[in-house]
Write a structure and sequence with these properties.
The complex is a heterodimer of chains A (789) and B (156).
Chain A: H1 16-21, E1 36-42, E2 48-54, H2 56-60, E3 64-68, H3 70-73, E4 94-95, E5 101-107, H4 110-118, E6 121-126, E7 152-160, H5 163-169, E8 172-179, E9 192-197, E10 203-207, H6 212-223, E11 230-233, H7 249-261, E12 265-268, H8 271-277, E13 283-292, E14 298-308, H9 316-325, E15 336-343, H10 359-376, H11 380-387, H12 406-416, H13 419-424, E16 434-444, E17 459-465, E18 472-476, H14 485-497, E19 504-508, H15 524-551, E20 558-561, E21 564-567, H16 575-584, E22 597-598, H17 599-610, E23 614-619, E24 639-650, E25 657-667, H18 674-693, E26 723-729, H19 751-763, H20 774-788
Parallel strand pairs in A: 1-12, 10-11, 14-15, 18-19, 25-26
Antiparallel strand pairs in A: 1-5, 2-4, 2-6, 3-5, 7-15, 8-13, 9-10, 9-12, 13-14, 16-24, 17-18, 17-23, 20-21, 21-22, 24-25
Helix pairs in contact in A: 6-7, 10-19, 14-15, 15-17, 16-17, 18-19
Chain B: E1 3-9, E2 12-18, H1 24-32, E3 50-53, E4 56-59, E5 72-74, H2 87-94, H3 104-117, H4 123-129, H5 141-155
Parallel strand pairs in B: 1-5
Antiparallel strand pairs in B: 1-2, 3-4, 3-5
Bound molecules: FE2/S2 (inorganic) cluster (2 copies).
C-alpha cells in the first residue's frame, strides 16, 4: 500500500462532471461575435498540375468576405520535421492527393462559404498517379515531389551487432511478411477551428489540437507573424490519437482568413474531411527474418520495411525510425539490422497514430516469435519469458530501460487468463474454432527530443497560490485531449500540497500559460507530471518558509497535511496568525473552525508576507541515445511495456472472428490514477482490435477514398468488443514522477499480434495482410482444406 | 421559406422559425444554444447527436427540425436537476466512463432510455442498446460498467 492520499487512487477526472452535464466546451461549441464561416476547396484529382485558379465568381457572391489561394498565402514550405518541409498552405503548382487544399473562403454562413468554394474554377492538367506504395520507388514512376528521388521521402539503414554471427548461432531461421492498410484515427470530434485577430495584431486560434506549441510555431512561421503574437488555445478535445498532433492547412487557412477579414472565422470539418486530412496510420509492408538458438534465445533480426505515407512527409520521418527502433525491446536482441523506406504516393497524408510507427512491426515480430516457438516445440509465453529484458539493461540500439516490468506483465496475463490450461486443451477438450494467443509490446514514455532541434524545456508548469487564500491554480500548456492529463496535474498538486483535489484548479492547453510540447509520444505524465511536482514543491517551500519566518521556527519542522499546517516538532501556537486572518475576514461565512492553521490561512499569510506566491517547475530529458544517425528517434527517459492474451472464436465456415476476451497487463511504472490507466489500456485494446480485424481505408483507382465515413470505415462497437481485463504492473520508474511512466500508446502494441496468434491457434491459418477480415480467413481456410484434401 | 414550429426541449417550450432543411441537431446546438449534444458525423453513423424525442433515442442529425413540431425533446442538459448529476451521470463520472467526453452526451441519452424501459439490463442488453453510439476512447468497458452500476443503484 502506498502512503499517498490522492495519487494511486480512482479519483474521478476533474473534467468529468462538466462533460456529463453537457457543459464542457469543445471548439465547435464556441461562437465569437460577428463570426464568419470558412470552407476549403479540396482537390478533386489525386495528381495534376494546376494551370489556373479563377476565384472571380466566388468573390462576387453576396456574403463572401474573402477568398484566398496560394497568391495570398505565399508558397513558403512548412511541415512537421524541418528537414522535410514539403507542404504549402495552398497548392500552387500541383495537387498531390484528392483532398489537397487549393483555396479557402470566409462568408457570412457555412452554406454561402460552400457555394463560393464550388464556384472557384480550377484548370488542371492531370498527371499519372502513384497509388501503389510497393511500386512507388520503381524506375519510371512519376515523381510527386522534385526533392524526393524515387518518391522516397526518408530512409533508414541500421546495423547493430553482427547479423551474420546471429545467423550462425541460429538453429531455426524464418522469414515472414506482413502488410496493413492505411487507417483513420476515427476520433469522435471532427477538427474545428476558430481564429481571431485583435486590433493590435494578436492572433488567437482555438483549435481541437494535441500540440498547441508546435501549432503556434507553424502558424507563426507559415503566416510570417512574430511568434509572440500568436496564441493557440485548445478547448476540450474529443480525442486525437496522433492525427491532431501537427498543424493543418485548415488551421493556417482559417487564421489567414481571420487576418484578411479582421473578423473571427470558424471552420469545422465534416467527417469526410477528417478522412481526407487523415495524418493517421501509414500503410506498412514489413519483411522480417529472425533466428532462434535451440534453447529459444533470439539470435538476430533482419527487418525490411516500406511505409506508404501518402502525399507529404508529415510525421513520416519519425514513423520510419520508430518502425525500426522500437523492436530493440522488450527482448534481449543483440543483432538487429533494419532497412526502412518511407515513400510518397497520391493518397491522403499519413502521420502519427497511437503506437507511432511501431504497431505493425510489432505485430509481425510477435507472430514470427510464435511461429518459431511452434517449430521449436516451445510454449510461446515461455519463449518470450526466456528472452525478456530486465530493469537496467540496454538494447542493441542503445535504449536504456530504467524500469521494466515485462516479466511481471507476461506472467500476470498468463496466469490471469489461465493460459496453461487453455493452451493445453488444444485439440482435446476445446471446441472447434476456439483459440488463444499472446504477445508483448514496448514503447517510449515521451520522445527524448523535440521535433525541431532545440535545447528547449519540454514543458514548464506554473502553480500560483490564490492571493485571497485557499486554493491553487496550476497553469500548463499540456494538452488534455481526453487522456486525462488535467486530472493528473491536479492530483499531483493536491498530493504535494496536502490539499483536497477540489482546491486545485487546472488551466491548460494554452500557449499563453506555459511551454509544453503537447500530447504525443506518451510524454505528458512523465514530463509535465515531473514539472508539475516541482512547481508544487516550490509553492509549498515558499508557504512554509513564510509561516516558519512568522513563527520563528525552522521551515523543516512544518508540513502541510489534509489542508492544515502541522508541526513536525513541538506543537506550535498559531493563534497570532489566526487573529490576523480573522481580522481581515470579518463577516465571512467560511472562517476556519479547525484548531490547526488551515491552508487557507497559511496561503493568505504567505501572500501578505511575500506577495503573490508562484511555484514553477520545468522538465527537459537528459541527453539520451547513441551516436549513430537517427539515434534520437526512439530515445526516451523511460520505456513502457505490456503483454496481452487474446481469446477468440472463429467460425470455420464463414471466417467470422469473435474476440471473446482480452487480458492485458501494462507496466506504467506507477498508476497516478488507477481508473485512467485502465481506461487507456482498454481504449488501446479497442483501437488495436479494430486495426487487427476491420479497419482499412479503401481507395479506387483514381485515389479516391471509398469509405470516408464511420459506417463503411468500421471501428469496433460495443457489441464487437469483448470484456477487457486490464492489469496494472508498477515497476517504479526512477525518471518518472513517483515512478510513473506511459500507458497511452504502449498498451496497443500487443493487441494485434495477440489476436493474430489466437486466430492461428483457432484455425491453423496465418493471414499476413491486415485487417484479418472474415473473407481473408474464409479464403485461407478454403485453401487449407483444398491442400489437405 | 422558414416555418414556425413549437417544441419542448428539456421541459421548456420553444417557438421558433426554422428553414425546412434545418436538422433538429442544428436547431438544438445553434438556434437554442444547447451545445451538449454533439455532431460526430452528421449522417447517422456515430450516435453523438442522440437525443430523446418523445422518449425515443433519435439521431438528431437525421431528423428535420420541422418533424419535431409538437414533440418533447430531452438532451443531456436536461438530465441533471439544479446542477445535481443524476445517478447515471454520477455513475459515468465515478466509473471512468468518460475520457474525451465527446460520445458521452449521446451515450447518456441512449442509456437513459434503456434504463427507463429496462431498469435491470444484462450486460448484453447494455451492449446492444449502446451499439449505435461509437466511442473511440474507452473500449466501452467502463461505459458498460457505469450503466450496470447505475441500474443496480436504481434498484436498491
Ligand atoms: S452526428 Fe448524428 S449520428 Fe453522428
Ligand atoms: S470518451 Fe471519447 S469517444 Fe467516448
Amino acid at each position: 500500500m502506498s502512503d499517498y492520499k490522492i495519487l494511486n487512487t480512482r479519483a474521478p477526472r476533474v473534467d468529468a462532471r462538466d462533460k456529463a452535464i453537457g457543459k464542457a466546451v469543445y471548439t465547435d461549441d464556441m461562437t465569437r461575435p460577428n463570426m464568419l464561416y470558412a470552407a476549403i476547396l479540396h482537390s478533386p484529382l489525386a495528381h495534376a498540375n494546376i494551370v489556373n485558379v479563377d476565384t472571380s465568381k466566388a468573390k462576387r457572391i453576396p456574403g463572401v468576405h474573402a477568398v484566398v489561394t496560394s497568391k495570398d498565402a505565399g508558397i513558403e514550405p512548412y511541415g512537421v520535421s524541418p528537414a522535410r518541409y514539403d507542404e504549402t498552405i495552398f497548392c500552387h503548382d500541383k495537387v498531390r492527393y484528392i483532398g489537397d487544399e487549393i483555396a479557402a473562403v470566409a462568408a457570412d454562413d457555412p452554406d454561402i462559404a460552400l457555394d463560393a468554394v464550388r464556384s472557384i474554377k480550377v484548370d488542371f492538367e492531370p498527371l499519372p498517379l502513384v497509388l501503389d506504395g510497393e511500386r512507388a520507388m520503381d524506375e519510371g514512376q512519376p515523381l510527386l515531389h522534385k526533392q524526393y528521388k524515387n518518391n522516397v521521402c526518408a530512409q533508414v539503414h541500421w546495423n547493430f551487432g553482427d547479423i551474420e554471427q546471429g545467423r550462425r548461432e541460429s538453429s531455426i531461421i524464418r522469414t515472414d511478411s506482413m502488410s496493413s492498410k492505411m487507417q483513420d484515427g476515427a476520433f469522435m470530434e471532427p477538427q474545428a477551428i476558430i481564429a481571431e485577430v485583435d486590433t493590435s495584431g494578436n492572433l488567437t486560434m482555438w483549435s481541437s489540437t494535441q500540440a498547441p506549441h508546435y501549432v503556434q510555431r507553424t502558424l507563426a512561421m507559415a503566416l510570417k507573424l512574430p511568434i509572440n503574437k500568436v496564441r493557440v488555445i485548445k478547448p476540450a478535445v474529443g480525442g486525437g490519437f496522433g492525427p491532431k498532433a501537427s498543424c493543418s492547412t485548415a488551421e493556417l487557412a482559417v487564421c489567414l482568413l481571420a487576418m484578411k477579414t479582421g473578423r473571427p472565422v470558424k471552420m469545422t470539418f465534416d467527417r469526410e474531411q477528417v478522412f481526407l486530412h487523415s495524418r493517421a496510420r501509414h500503410q506498412f509492408f514489413h519483411t522480417m527474418t529472425s533466428g532462434l538458438r535451440d534453447d529459444g534465445t533470439i539470435a538476430f533480426l533482419e527487418h525490411n520495411c516500406l511505409l506508404d505515407g501518402g502525399a507529404y512527409a508529415s510525421f513520416g520521418i519519425a514513423t520510419i525510425y520508430y518502425a525500426g527502433s522500437l523492436l530493440g525491446g522488450p527482448y534481449r536482441l543483440k543483432n538487429m539490422k533494419y532497412d526502412g523506406y518511407r515513400v510518397v504516393t497520391n493518397k491522403p497524408v499519413c502521420g502519427a497514430q497511437r503506437g507511432h510507427g511501431a504497431v505493425i512491426a510489432r505485430a509481425l515480430f510477435e507472430v514470427q516469435l510464435d511461429r518459431m516457438a511452434e517449430e521449436l516445440g516451445m510454449d510461446p509465453i515461455e519463449l518470450r519469458l526466456k528472452n525478456v529484458m530486465d530493469t537496467g539493461e540496454t538494447t542493441c540500439n542503445e535504449l536504456f530501460v530504467s524500469s521494466f516490468g515485462m516479466r511481471e506483465a507476461l506472467e500476470a496475463v498468463r496466469d490471469s487468463a489461465a493460459w496453461k490450461k487453455k493452451r493445453a486443451s488444444a485439440g482435446k477438450t476445446r471446441a472447434a474454432g476456439k483459440g488463444i494467443g499472446a504477445a508483448c509490446g514496448f514503447f517510449v514514455s515521451g520522445a527524448g527530443y523535440s521535433i525541431y532541434r532545440s535545447k528547449t524545456y519540454h514543458c514548464t508548469v506554473v502553480t500560483k497560490v490564490d492571493e485571497v487564500g485557499g486554493g491553487v491554480l496550476v497553469s500548463s500548456g499540456a494538452a488534455d485531449i481526453g487522456q486525462g492529463s488535467d486530472t493528473m496535474l491536479a492530483m499531483i498538486t493536491a498530493e504535494e500540497l496536502g490539499l483536497p483535489l477540489d482546491d486545485v484548479r487546472v488551466q491548460s492547453g494554452d500557449t499563453n500559460l506555459s511551454m509544453d510540447l503537447g500530447a504525443y509520444s506518451s510524454r505528458t505524465t512523465l514530463m509535465t507530471g515531473s514539472a508539475c511536482r516541482d512547481a508544487a514543491r516550490d509553492v509549498k517551500r515558499k508557504i512554509l518558509n513564510a509561516i516558519a519566518g512568522r513563527m520563528s521556527v525552522p521551515p523543516e519542522t512544518l508540513d502541510i497535511k489534509d489542508g492544515h499546517i502541522i508541526s513536525l516538532g513541538d506543537p506550535i501556537d498559531f493563534s497570532d496568525l489566526r487573529d490576523e486572518y480573522l481580522k481581515e475576514h470579518f463577516g465571512f461565512s467560511d472562517l476556519p473552525d479547525s484548531p490547526l492553521l488551515t491552508f487557507r490561512e497559511a496561503s493568505r499569510i504567505a501572500f501578505l508576507e511575500l506577495g503573490t506566491v508562484i511555484g514553477t517547475g520545468s522538465y527537459r530529458p537528459p541527453k539520451l541515445g547513441g551516436s549513430f544517425k537517427g539515434a534520437a528517434v526512439g530515445t526516451s527517459p523511460a520505456f513502457g511495456c505490456s503483454a496481452q492474451v487474446a481469446e477468440v472464436t472463429v467460425d470455420l465456415e464463414t471466417g467470422e472472428i469473435t474476440v471473446d476476451k482480452i487480458t492485458g497487463a501494462h507496466d506504467c511504472g506507477f498508476a497516478i490514477n488507477t481508473t485512467q490507466v485502465e481506461g487507456q489500456m482498454q481504449g488501446s485494446m479497442m483501437m488495436g482490435m479494430g486495426e487487427a480485424l476491420m479497419e482499412q481505408i479503401c481507395y479506387d483507382d483514381k485515389g479516391r477514398i471509398l469509405n470516408a465515413n464511420l459506417a463503411e470505415y468500421k471501428i469496433p462497437t460495443s457489441l464487437d468488443m469483448p470484456h477487457l481485463d486490464a492489469i496494472i504492473v508498477e515497476s517504479h520508474e526512477p525518471n518518472g514522477p513517483y515512478g510513473a511512466k506511459e500507458v497511452g500508446e504502449g498498451a496497443i502494441m500487443p493487441v494485434i499480434p495477440s489476436i493474430l496468434n489466437a486466430v492461428y491457434d483457432a484455425t491453423g491459418v496465418r493471414i499476413s495482410e491486415l485487417p484479418v477480415t472474415p473473407e481473408r480467413i474464409a479464403e485461407a481456410l478454403r485453401k487449407k482444406r483444398e491442400s489437405c484434401g | 421559406m422558414k416555418r414556425i414550429i413549437s417544441l419542448t426541449i428539456n421541459s421548456v417550450l420553444y417557438e421558433l422559425a426554422v428553414e425546412p432543411r434545418r436538422t433538429l441537431l442544428e436547431l438544438i446546438r445553434q438556434d437554442i444554444g444547447l451545445t451538449g449534444t454533439k455532431k460526430g458525423c452528421g449522417i447517422g453513423d456515430c450516435g453523438g447527436c442522440t437525443v430523446l424525442v418523445d422518449g425515443i433515442p433519435t439521431f438528431s442529425c437525421l431528423m428535420l427540425a420541422i418533424q419535431a413540431e409538437g414533440c418533447e425533446v430531452e438532451t443531456v442538459e436536461g438530465l441533471a436537476t439544479d446542477g445535481q448529476l443524476n445517478r447515471l451521470q454520477e455513475a459515468f463520472v465515478e466509473h471512468g466512463a468518460i475520457q474525451c467526453g465527446f460520445c458521452t452526451p449521446g451515450m447518456l441519452m441512449t442509456s437513459t432510455e434503456l434504463l427507463r424501459h429496462n431498469p435491470n439490463p444484462t450486460e448484453q442488453n447494455i451492449r446492444e442498446a449502446i451499439s449505435g453510439n461509437l466511442c473511440r476512447c474507452t473500449g466501452y468497458q467502463k461505459i458498460v460498467e457505469a450503466i450496470q452500476h447505475a441500474s443496480e443503484a436504481d434498484n436498491e
